[in-house]
Specification:
Blueprint lengths: L16 H4 L5 H15 L1 H7 L10 H13 L5 H10 L1 H7 L11 H12 L2 H10 L2 H4 L6 E10 L7 E3 L28 E3 L6 E3 L8 E11 L5 E8 L4 H13 L6 E5 L6 H9 L2 E5 L12 H4 L2 H9 L3 H10 L11 H25 L3
Parallel strand pairs: 1-7, 7-8
Antiparallel strand pairs: 1-5, 2-3, 4-5, 5-6
């Protein structure tokens, strides 16, 4: 049964949480945006929860607590609950009264699958961006796309042959010795026993191969906000395929739009597909021993150079998601759970940016 989002305890306490948070605190503007977004998600929450049984922790409180975890770089739900126990700012933002007990950290594990089934992370991202005062900040014509590696919660020692042969020579113990020098390992023949969805991937020549996923983001170019995010298994085609899927969801316009991207997207198939969708490919030219798919039809225009400058701002979004929100190395296993965390971190990034953007003069 779904719990209530009402705050209790005001009648029995001399501490007024509302008065303890200064009027110009950035979390005030963020909480207002979050509450409006959560109000839009009420029908989705109603579907996810049964009408019978004991009341659960309200999903609104869970999501606000998870946002605090992303904002303040808290590494685990256990540490988040410890912080919520004594931090009045956290209690105010989440919606707990001064005398309300905090819940056990295992509540997040029990409710994550429910939120995952409802695709709540992606819906929260959309609900934030659909608000009228946020919409005016967004560009509907010019976008940028890129991908970033998210290291899996799995050791390379767990990457063993699928047929179970030639595993690491055991020396005993949980962290036994393993020497893979001279062995050929690939995703076709090997699989991680810790996280089967993770793939061995090397970012470039001379780089170390790691078990990871690829997170993708679509940024609008006016304010630098993420309008879409997803996560896929790591492979050489994932970035371009994800880019086409995301821009298709946002490219239904009566006029042409532009999509900026780096050299990794400079392939004939990708460029042709964009043009067939009515999207102008502002892709950086890759002339390293090959012929670029981008010609003078595109590069001669002034807008191409502008897109090439602005597209680099998407690295700022990935930097925040990976360093502040803790998605550089995920603590979850499985494509769905890691993808939920990545998309939720993208929504948190937008919320951090929005108070300053909304306060700026039009």
């Amino acid at each position: 049964m779904r719990g209530s989002d009402e705050r209790t305890g005001e009648l029995f306490s001399y501490v007024d949480l509302e008065a303890r948070v200064r009027a110009d605190h950035p979390l005030r503007a963020i909480r207002e945006i979050v509450n409006m977004a959560l109000e839009q998600l009420q029908p989705d929450f109603a579907v996810l929860y049964s009408k019978m049984g004991r009341p659960s922790i309200a999903p609104e409180k869970l999501l606000r607590a998870m946002l605090c975890q992303a904002f303040y770089s808290i590494r685990s739900e256990r540490q988040l609950m410890d912080r919520l126990e004594f931090d009045l700012l956290f209690r105010w933002f989440v919606g707990l009264g001064i005398d309300d007990p905090v819940w056990d950290h295992s509540v997040f594990s029990k409710n994550r699958d429910r939120l995952l089934d409802g695709d709540i992370a992606a819906k929260l991202l959309s609900a934030v961006l659909s608000q009228s005062r946020v919409k005016r900040l967004l560009s509907s014509d010019h976008f940028s796309v890129d991908g970033t590696l998210v290291e899996a919660w799995a050791s390379t020692k767990s990457f063993i042959p699928k047929d179970g042969t030639d595993g690491p020579a055991g020396g005993g113990g949980r962290n036994e010795q393993a020497d893979f020098h001279g062995q050929k390992r690939s995703n076709e023949t090997h699989m991680s026993t810790t996280d089967p969805d993770a793939r061995l991937y090397r970012k470039g020549a001379g780089k170390e191969a790691r078990l990871c996923f690829i997170g993708h983001g679509l940024m609008e170019n006016r304010s630098g906000l993420l309008v879409d995010a997803c996560l896929t298994p790591a492979n050489g085609h994932a970035e371009r395929v994800a880019a086409l899927v995301m821009i298709e969801r946002h490219g239904d316009r009566p006029h042409r739009i532009t999509l900026g991207a780096d050299k990794a997207y400079d392939t004939q198939d990708f460029v042709n597909e964009l043009r067939s969708m009515g999207v102008t490919p502002h892709v950086a030219q890759n002339t390293n021993g090959r012929r670029s798919a981008i010609d003078a039809r595109t590069t001669r225009h002034r807008g191409y150079g502008m897109s090439q400058r602005i597209r680099k701002r998407i690295e700022e979004t990935f930097g925040w998601i990976k360093t502040i929100a803790g998605q550089d190395k995920t603590v979850y296993r499985g494509l769905d759970r890691v993808g939920f965390a990545f998309t939720f971190a993208a929504a948190a990034y937008n919320l951090v940016r929005l108070p300053k953007l909304l306060a700026a003069p039009p």
